[in-house]
Amino acid sequence: MKHQYSINVNPTASSRIGDVDFTNIPFGKVISDHMFVADYNGKEWTDLRIVPFADMEISPANLALHYGQSIFEGMKATKINGEPFLFRPEMHARRLNVSAQRMCMPEVPESLFLTAIKMLVELDKDWVPDEEGHSLYIRPFMFATDELFGVQVSKTYRFIIFTGPVGPYYPKPVRLWVEEVYTRAAGGGVGEAKCAGNYGASLLPAKRAKEAGYDQVMWMDAVEKKYVQEVGTMNLFFVMDNRVITPATTGTILRGVTRDSFITLLKDWGYIVEDRLISIAEITDAYWRGALQECFGAGTAAVVSHVSDITWRDRKLDLPPIDAEHRPVGTRLKTHINRLRMGLEHDEFHWLRSCANSGVMELVSAPEEVA
User: Is the pLDDT of residue 364 over 70?
Assistant: First the structure.
């Protein structure tokens, strides 16, 4: 059944796009003209609107600021023949709702999520970069809006989507430190939810790693500190003994959309893929046997982030050079996804979604105002 929504659209009177140098876009610092906003009144999502991007007032007693009811998603839009397309947006909609369930927040109907994003991206399609490896990053997020102090579930919420053009997230290979003091998530926790607290807790270990000369941390499990989890905020893949291995999502690892896409592609290409627990000792053993061929992170922002070396205690594992000859798996995956998003590869699995004809827009001529 096709759902349609009446979304008021108040376009900006003065676009900021002329001030942007699209040949030099710092990641996450440039924001497009508009944002989608909806408010949850305790029963349903109301006041659906697209307005000019602007600041908003929040009470100091806002529950999200104190108790962390805040979740988000990250996805991209790219252009094919001048028109914006999304990559597997349904999976992002479902994952946002999985996060909402875990954080005791209301779900956003998948049809509303998709309609709002398509309309927003279509409105700001001139902000979508044309260059390969560049894209329009899309940030849907939700937070509690009740105003009081005292630990409890909020009754009201705000859902916002805004966008911004971005270039490559990790333009060069990364150096990893195996983190054995701090942990990202434990069983029964919120590791599988894309909630703000997960990322706040990761900042100190990442800062310590960078101060020691590394780019990111490789997380271990919280119990035995021996099974590999993620790298920074990305899922991990290892190519060992002519197999591709990725740590199992057992409730402590985010179920990445890119991760799922990679597994599907690799199996289709004939690779042996293992989705299982993998220990840092097994990885080290493979390295010393000469069987560790590749290691890379997988995520929406970077697509593939090749790992140049891994340091575990006093052992440094230097991986092969970063080129198509020595890193055929990661290179092929990144190239395929980037080309697919630009319409240069056949969309065999029907992952791309056009932003055209997205829903019912109700244009209003009200003056610009803060959402």
Answer: no
Over residues 56-71, the pLDDT tens digits come to 999 999 999 999 999 9
| Residue 366 confidence (pLDDT) | 37
**Can you say whether the dihedral through the CA atoms of 251, 252, 258, 259 is positive or negative?**
negative
For domain 6-169+350-363, the question of CATH label 3.30.470.10 is answered with yes
Domain extents for the chain?
Answer: 6-169+350-363, 174-321
Mean pLDDT value across the chain:
93
CATH class of 174-321: alpha beta
- For residue 361, is pLDDT > 50? no
Q: What is the pTM of this model?
A: 0.93
Amino acid 184: pLDDT: 93
Residues 6+ apart with CB under 8 A from 210: none
pLDDT above 90 coverage of the chain, percent? 87
pLDDT digit string (tens) for 271-301? Answer: 999 999 999 999 999 999 999 999 999 999 8
